Amino acid sequence: MFSSPLIPALSILIFLPFLFLIAPRILLLTDLQISLSPDELDDVALFHKAILASSSHHHRTSSSSISHLGTTTNPKPKIAFLFLTNSDLAFAPLWEKFFHGHQHLFNIYIHADPTVQITPPGGVFEGRFVPAKKTERASPTLISAARRLLANAILDDPLNLYFALVSQHCIPLHSFPFVYKTLFGSELAALRDFGTQSNHQSFIEILSDDPNLPERYVSRGDNVMLPEVPFEQFRVGSQFYILTKRHSLLVIQDKRLWRKFKLPCLNVYSCYPEEHYFPTLLSMEDPKGCSHYTLTRVNWTDSTDGHPYTYEAPEISAQLVHTLRKSNSSYSYLFARKFSPDCLRPLMKLASRVIFRDSNCVYN
Fold it and tell me: What are the transmembrane regions (predicted)?
């Protein structure tokens, strides 16, 4: 009685929509089977949503064309600024001045430790907090927070093509137009890259010759990182970076290395997962697509307990800003850290006439 050829065909037609509906859930269950903790459930769901949304948008825009005049129906690409903090954003007024007049070219996302009381900033920062979880040093929580920020930014706006991770202690060293042009180049190149999901490089420090690398490699135990991460491929770098969209997607898609870097640290004095995971992953997957240096200036002279040197208000001057901009690469530093909150007032005095007055500034 079921020999009609229409029955199998109808069954397939009925089943296909059901398959598309449950496919993401199947992927989620697959992830859960490879040792995901209950605390990661929300993150995995978020990552899948961001990946699927990006894939869908890329399919719709991959055929967009650019005329000989450099015009396109697509809006301009944006920079997503990702603030990772466990205290008040003391320099919000300075960043507000930095962003002023360029609202169509950036987005802001803030991951604030929910266990700490933080005063929400207003202006362009208002309402820009993402769902957050507790963070602490010498643990993989800072990696998770950064991945969470990347996923939220990817999901929120498909025009986000660069993702700049900064802290509450970071300040801009140039005007927004200078930063935008440094990252995207000419307007035509920026528009072209929107259609290709960006072919620019990521600016992330990747070092293989750090003297403390052996100690850091075994901070979770001997041979624990094998076979996924041989010592020869283990890297160290700055916690803060600027990633392209393709590398940001690579980060939130990763499961293989994450299974190793999320393991608990046995030696907390040599374990800084956030300084190892991102440089190691990108070095293994796309070393030629990365600068191997950061555009965030950090002073490690007189560092204390693993923290870089902190500038105080009496040290703020025009000369300091000019000095912090200088780098050994072909690019000027765009941001700097670490500054104490009392630096805000002198920095605001320098903002218009020094920090954001860089029209004649040239690359080093």
Answer: 6-28
